[in-house]
TrEMBL record:
Domain of life: Bacteria
One Pfam family it belongs to: UTRA
Name of the protein: Histidine utilization repressor
HTH gntR-type domain span: 19-87
Gene Ontology annotations of biological process type: L-histidine metabolic process; negative regulation of DNA-templated transcription
Keyword Transport found: no
Entry keyword annotation includes Transcription regulation: yes
Gene3D superfamilies for the chain: Chorismate lyase-like, Winged helix-like DNA-binding domain superfamily/Winged helix DNA-binding domain
Keywords: DNA-binding, Transcription, Transcription regulation
GO MF, one example: DNA binding
Matches recorded under InterPro entries: Bact_HTH_transcr_reg (IPR050679), Chorismate_lyase_/UTRA_dom_sf (IPR028978), His_ut_repres (IPR010248), Tscrpt_reg_HTH_GntR (IPR000524), UTRA (IPR011663), WH-like_DNA-bd_sf (IPR036388), WH_DNA-bd_sf (IPR036390)
Length: 248
């Protein structure tokens, strides 16, 4: 390859110089994280050190760091410095997803902790969602899903026994409810909604967050063989999670 001409080198220099310094600092910090040189929880260089590296004023460096903090790329700990923020776990919204597969796809370990497995009955609010009469039998499970030891979802699920008669006999430390239901009650359709809600005290305790912390809450019902098979509410810490989707 021919060496760059003086003109091309000058054009490159002009292009670099036209980028504001604060943006170059942001690009550098994001690039180091994307390349894996800095990982979640790592301390990033101080504003003073970045100022020396880029020949920038403290105000300019502070702007770059503040903007990345607002974007949840970095997090500040008063008196301790600035760190790489916890990653946002990405979940697919359009498809019926298996949280264990998503964790493994990220190279992480999935674990689940059942808090409740019980026989219950449909109350006046649940019965219409299943097309059942109040008092009809249902199965109920409450499970906390973890990724690399961190709680990332509370799954509060109600199941129609007619669709999954062996639901309560499953070992949900080894198989997820989604995996079992997809095997015994083939998916016919689904409807869902998503909203941001403050975590109640019991959900907060299971997710290891403060009560009132904003959560992304996915409500979903699935049908199989002409019946509503499952109604589930899934709570995710808002600062750790995002949902994505694509329509072809």
């Amino acid at each position: 390859m021919a060496p760059p001409t003086p003109e091309s080198s000058l054009n490159g220099q002009i292009a670099q110089d036209s980028t504001p310094i604060f943006q170059r600092i942001k690009d550098y910090l994001v690039g180091e994280i994307a390349a894996g040189r800095w990982k979640e929880g790592d301390l990033v260089p101080s504003e003073q050190a970045l100022g020396r590296q880029f020949g920038a004023s403290r105000m300019t460096v502070n702007r770059a760091v503040r903007e990345l903090t607002a974007q949840q790329v970095l997090t500040r700990r008063q008196g301790a410095g600035t760190y790489v923020a916890p990653q946002k776990y990405q979940a697919t919204l359009v498809e019926i997803r298996n949280i264990a597969d998503e964790a493994r796809a990220r190279g992480h370990a999935h674990a689940s902790r059942p808090h409740l497995l019980e026989r219950a009955v449909a109350d006046e609010a649940l019965a219409p969602r299943f097309g059942l009469v109040p008092g009809a039998p249902l199965f109920h499970s409450l499970i906390v899903h973890e990724e690399d030891g961190r709680p990332i979802q509370v799954e509060d699920r109600w199941v129609n026994p007619a669709c999954a008669p062996g639901y309560l006999e499953q070992d949900f430390t080894r198989i997820t409810p989604n995996e079992h239901l997809m095997a015994v009650a083939p998916l016919q359709g689904a409807s869902y909604s998503i909203e941001a809600l403050p975590a109640p005290r019991d959900i907060a305790a299971m997710l290891d967050i403060s009560p009132g912390t904003c959560c992304l809450v996915l409500n979903r019902s699935t049908t199989s063989n002409g019946m509503v098979a499952s109604v589930v509410t899934m709570w995710h810490p808002g600062h750790l999670y995002k949902f994505t989707g694509r329509v072809a």
